């Protein structure tokens, strides 16, 4: 009786191994089968390329806008400071020119004899 039980258990273990091996083999064979695909037409290729390029262009536009916003914060401030400096220098030089002209006039008046 014990011998019969041992044979049955051994057969069950072997059957499980065989079923497992058969399952893995079937899975392996089905994964190696090539899928049949029809070749794409020129229109299909064009549609695919257009859709991919639209996505990429949109991504590039977003990156460019982010870069623009980041750079505007930096570069606009520099440009404004430069323009204000130029205006200040120009107005200072204009004031200096006016003061020099006034000084020249006052010197001219002081050195010119008064005429009646």
Arithmetic mean of pLDDT: 78
Approximately what portion of the residues adopt beta-strand conformation? under 5%
Largest sheet: none
How much helicity do the residues have? Answer: over 70%
Query: What's the number of helices?
Result: 2
The termini sit apart by 157 Å
The count of β-strands is: 0
What is the string of helix and strand elements?
HH
Q: Which structural class fits the helix and strand makeup?
A: mainly alpha
Low-pLDDT ranges: none
Subunit organisation of the chains: single chain
Rg calculated over all Cα atoms: 46 Å
How does the overall form come out from the CA principal axes? Answer: rod-shaped
Write up this protein.
By secondary structure, the chain is mostly helical. It has helices at residues 2-32, 42-111. The protein is rod-shaped. The mean pLDDT is 78.
Quickly describe the structure.
With 116 residues, the chain is mainly α. The protein has helices at residues 2-32, 42-111.
Structural features:
single chain, 116 residues, mainly alpha, 2 helices, 87% helix, rod-shaped
Secondary structure elements and pairings:
Blueprint: H1 2-32, H2 42-111
């Amino acid at each position: 009786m014990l011998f019969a039980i041992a044979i049955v258990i051994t057969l069950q273990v072997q059957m499980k191994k065989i079923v497992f091996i058969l399952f893995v083999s079937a899975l392996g064979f089905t994964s190696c089968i090539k899928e049949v695909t029809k070749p794409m037409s020129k229109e299909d290729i064009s549609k695919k390329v257009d859709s991919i390029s639209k996505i990429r262009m949109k991504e590039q536009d977003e990156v460019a806008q982010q870069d623009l916003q980041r750079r505007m914060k930096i570069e606009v401030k520099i440009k404004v400071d430069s323009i204000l400096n130029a205006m200040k220098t120009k107005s200072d030089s204009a004031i200096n020119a006016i003061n020099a002209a006034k000084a020249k006039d006052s010197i001219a008046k002081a050195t010119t004899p008064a005429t009646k």
